[in-house]
Structures are given as C-alpha cells and as structure tokens.
Amino acid sequence: MTIEVSSLRKEFSSPSGTITAVDGIDFSIDEGDFFTFVGPSGCGKTTTLRCIAGLETPTSGSIRFDGEDMTGKPAHKRNLAMMFQNIALYPHMKVKENISYPLKVRNVPKQKRYENAEEAADIMQIRELLEKYPGELSGGQQQRAALARTIVHEPEAFLMDEPLSDLDAKLKVEIRKEIQRVHDRVKKPTIYVTHDQEEAMTMSDRIAVFNDGGIEQIGTPNELYQRPANRFVANFIGNPSMNFFDGTVNRASGETVVVSVDGRDVELQVVDSTPVGVGDEITVGVRPEDVRLDRNDGDLEGEITLIERIGKQMLATIEGPQGEIRVTLPADNSYGKGEVIRLAIETRATHLFDSGSDDVVT
Ligand code: ATP
C-alpha cells in the first residue's frame, strides 16, 4: 500500500484560541518504506499520525491509501496496526488472547484467532509465553507480545508512536532490531514517530523532519546528514550537533570560499560556491568531526574550556571570537583544558546558510 498525504492541516480550538498543530504538510510513503517523523516536542508528529490512523479529522487536506481518499473514513475501516508508547496489554487476558484481540474485534473464529496468534508469536519468538499473563512477563517480552499483536491481523501499514521511549537503553536496541526484522519480513509501509534523531537515523529508509507544524525536509538519513536544507535540519540531525559561526564572504571562486570571521580569513571548501557572492552575510556550519585541533596551524583560534568523553571519543569545547566550537578527538589525545589552540576546517563540503533565512546556500 502507498500512503499519500496532501496539504494536511489540523487545528484545535483551545480556551486561549486556535492552535495549528499541523500546518499544510505533504509527503508520500511507498510500499515497504520505513518512514520516520522526527522533530522536537509539540511539532505535530502525533497529530499527523492520528490523522492517518483516522483518530483525528483533518481540518483540511487529504489522506489517500493506494490512491483512494480515506480522509473521512473511520479508524476501523482502515486496516492499520498501531503501537504506542504505553504497551497496554490487557492484564486479565493471557498473552495469546492479547495477541489475537485484533482478530476478535474483527469477528474471526476462536480457532483461527489462536492459530494466527501462534504464528505471530513464532515471528516474535515468544511462543512459550502464550499461556502466561502480562504480569508474568519482563518489559522486553511485553514489547514482543505487543509487536505480535500489531502483526496478527496482517495490516496494510504500521503506525508507531514513540514505542520505545519507556524502555531502558539496552532493551531499546533489542526491540528496535525486532521492529526492523518485522518490517523486513512483512514489507508494509511503517510510519515511526520519535523525537530521537539517532533512533530515526538508524532505523529509517526516509525521514521527515518536523518543526512547528511543518516539515523542514524529507530525505534518507544520508541526505539529511550530508545535505541539510536549512539550519534547523543541520542542527537537529547529528550528535554531537553541528557547529555554527557567522561570517562575511570575502572571496568565492570555484569550490573555495574565503569568509571573514571576526577579522580573520577562513578558507572553506564547499560543494558549489556559485550561489554566494562577495559581501554576503552567511552562517558557516561544520560538524565536530570535520574540525581539526592543531597547536600551530589553522585559520581559527580559541581556548579549550571543556573536554568530555562521548562513547569511544572525546569532545572538546573551544571558545574563541567566532563563538563556541565543539570538536571530536581520539580518546588518547594530548590536549588539556585551558590550552589555547588553533582550529582547521577539514571537510571538503562545508555547509553555508543564509544568515537571514537560515536556508542552505551551498
Ligand atoms: P510530542 O513529541 O511531545 O508528542 P508532537 O510532535 O507529537 O509532540 P503533537 O502531539 O502532534 O506534537 O502536538 C502538536 C500541537 O498540537 C501541540 O501544540 C499540542 O499542544 C497541540 N495539540 C495536540 N493535540 C491537541 C488537542 N487534542 N487539543 C488541543 N491541542 C492539541
């Protein structure tokens, strides 16, 4: 099935006035796509998902499944599976009754319901738990049972809203893999909502970056990382996040742009410099892994104010006239807090943003 969302808008009335939760968004999802909505809290992800599910009625715009207009259809007429943050297995029902519940509401006979529940349990590797009650299961087993319940009625698409946010880090990784395994097996479109960019980057075929009721950019994880459309996406995608500093273009020829930053000339390599001209006010974006610290060489200068461990690497914070810049370093580096050092920008694809609009210029 394909899902097509056009000019979707959803307003809520509240005592303080009208809230525009979703402000005219468009996207389409292909059969088999793992498509993620990512963005900060309150940007309209859940509302969009609920409109697709039929749990909210859009103020305007349309939702089509395989070309058919579903906008006014009630939730039970859409063959979708939903999984939310709260697992909500029914505590008084055995696991097999929980898993087969979506079939019960569709009036499937008991024998067939249990057969399908066993198949779904096999896929999730929890067959031995079918006769147990949810209270006897660990958190991870409950998640697997909940996943089995979403696949049991062979839905046309999966809608998942922050399904992992209540889990500890280790379990998160495990269930993430299970969700992907189910997706690879059933090959149905999946919409996954998260505010965690790392989760979005590891799981998705494509990602829509939401902000303030709109979509800033849609792309593959690589496209968003390497070619962010604007400063919001550049800042939101990637951890530790991109560094930004302001400058004025001094010279632009071919793929080299020289920018004046607080009186110093900084030479940058860009993918395509034609859109910038001498005198343009720009914001330079450079990722922490693309800056090199050096004791003698580099266009920028600053003092190391913090060195902290992030996983296998270290992250140094350098304060200078250009503002704060963060740089990843190998764990065995010899730099120390308080040292004044130079910074060289290493990447062949620096990001330049228009200082006014924050849109990428190259
Ligand atoms: P989160 O990650 O925190 O769940 P979100 O991106 O999913 O956020 P939504 O839940 O879609 O965001 O909310 C978008 C906006 O709409 C918010 O300002 C929210 O307060 C508002 N909103 C959502 N549902 C309602 C409602 N039923 N009535 C009034 N306002 C609502």
Automatic annotation (TrEMBL):
Mode of membrane association: Peripheral membrane protein
EC id: 7.5.2.13
Record bears the keyword Translocase: yes
Keyword Phosphoprotein appears in the UniProt entry: no
Subunit structure comment from the entry: The complex is composed of two ATP-binding proteins (XacJ and XacK), two transmembrane proteins (XacH and XacI) and a solute-binding protein (XacG).
Role according to the record: Part of the ABC transporter complex XacGHIJK involved in the uptake of xylose and arabinose. Responsible for energy coupling to the transport system.
Subcellular location field: Cell membrane
A molecular function (GO) term: ATP binding
Keywords linked to the UniProt accession: ATP-binding, Cell membrane, Membrane, Nucleotide-binding, Translocase, Transport
Primary subcellular site in the record, as a coarse category: membrane
Enzyme class per UniProt: translocase
Protein name: ABC-type D-xylose/L-arabinose transporter
Pfam families: ABC_tran, OB_MalK
Lineage of the species this protein comes from: Archaea, Methanobacteriati, Methanobacteriota, Stenosarchaea group, Halobacteria
Limits of the ABC transporter domain: 3-237
Catalysed conversion reaction: D-xylose(out) + ATP + H2O = D-xylose(in) + ADP + phosphate + H(+); L-arabinose(out) + ATP + H2O = L-arabinose(in) + ADP + phosphate + H(+)
UniProt family annotation: Belongs to the ABC transporter superfamily. Carbohydrate uptake transporter-1 (CUT1) (TC 3.A.1.1) family.
An annotated GO cellular component: plasma membrane
